Amino acid sequence: MSNRISNKDAVADITCDSSSRRELESLPYVHKVGTVPKQKLLTEITNSLKETFFADDPLKPFKDQPRKRKLVLGLQALFPILQWGQDYNFSKFKGDLIAGLTIASLCIPQDIAYSNLANLDPQFGLYSSFVPPLIYAFMGSSRDIAIGPVAVVSLFLGTFLQNELDPIKQKAEYERLAFTATFFAGITQATLGFFRYLLLLHSSQCYACLRIKL
Asked: Whole-angstrom Cα distance, residue 27 to residue 24?
């Protein structure tokens, strides 16, 4: 009698095990993720800043390199034309020439209008549209970015300078103040770009646009 009871219990246990396995198999698979080990506060702040401002790790190519190679990499980082200029050929030059002539036909009247928005003579708009792209050709790495004056900045500059000086009666002082403002704006932008604070730069530009609209 006891053997029959034990056999029934064993069969019941096997049935329960098989049913529970079927239920587990029918359930969706859940991947268990381990918890991240807790870091010190200073280490966490350092890693967050490094990930935000130096996500691409610009100093990684310089590791374990001889001095001459580091010098070459440093010059290529400062002047990317030394790197991509090695693969430049005549077919690429023809495409750039056609693109340059096309953009120039658009930029010349457009930049004259920008200088008018800033209450400056037309030649200043032409200077600002020619010199920055020429410098960027040696020191820039993007083929799609637009370099030069824009309507918002020109209107912003003309509006604020006009509150200080009359662009007609005090023309020389107005131009001198415009040169000073653009010089320090360039220094600020170059400093922010060097320290990779581009987010702060874009935020300030958006704030300027909002102030003009208001």
From this structure: 5
